[in-house]
Amino acid sequence: MTEADEPAAGDEYCYLTTTGRRTGRPHRIEIWYAADGDTLYLLSGGGRSSDWVRNLAVDPAVMVEVDDRTRVARGRIVDDGDEADRARSLVFGKYAPRSGSDLTGWRERALPVAIDLGDPTVP
User: Fold this and answer.
1) Is 61 left (phi over 0), alpha (psi -120 to 50) or beta?
2) 17 neighbors 27 (Cβ within 8 angstroms)
3) Residue 13's pLDDT is what?
4) Could you give the residue ranges of the DSSP H alpha helices within the chain?
5) Residues 6+ apart with CB under 8 A from 76
6) Quick one: pLDDT at residue 20?
């Protein structure tokens, strides 16, 4: 990813499109994220029961829209460990100062999900 392609740190959210595990139809959500190189980290407050997480577990091929660009990507649930801790810290660090709420409990309970970016598909 070139510097021009990197997501802007100040962007409020991204759009993630998964494929419905039952319907096969696109399922698009708006969600907070934090970028780390070619990976976006998201936190699912609903854990593994969120529709988008359940969809991604069945079919990890996703589309993500950041900074007016759409990219093909692969999603994956991040199990406990260093990457999960990093994901939580990055997303919390980006949004805690802006939210006006205490996000500490959310950071600890939410399920980290990584979106590994591919090539841009739309300029």
Assistant:
1) beta
2) yes
3) 92
4) 51-58, 82-99, 104-109
5) 56, 60, 113, 114, 116
6) 96
Residues composing the chain: 123
CB 115 within 8 A of CB 16: yes
Q: Which band of pLDDT confidence, cut at 50, 70 and 90, is reported for residue 4?
A: very low
φ, ψ of residue 104 to 5 degrees: the values are -60, -45
Q: Is the dihedral of CA 102, 104, 109, 110 positive or negative?
A: positive
What is the reported pLDDT for 5? 43
∠ CA 35-49-79, nearest 5°, is 50
Whether residue 34 contacts residue 110, with contact meaning beta carbons closer than 8 Å, is answered with: no
Measured between alpha carbons, how far is 1 from 24 in angstroms, rounded to an integer?
30
| Three-state SS at 46 | coil
Asked whether residue 85 carries a pLDDT value surpassing 90, the answer given is yes
pLDDT in tens, 8-41: 444 789 999 999 999 999 999 999 999 999 999 9
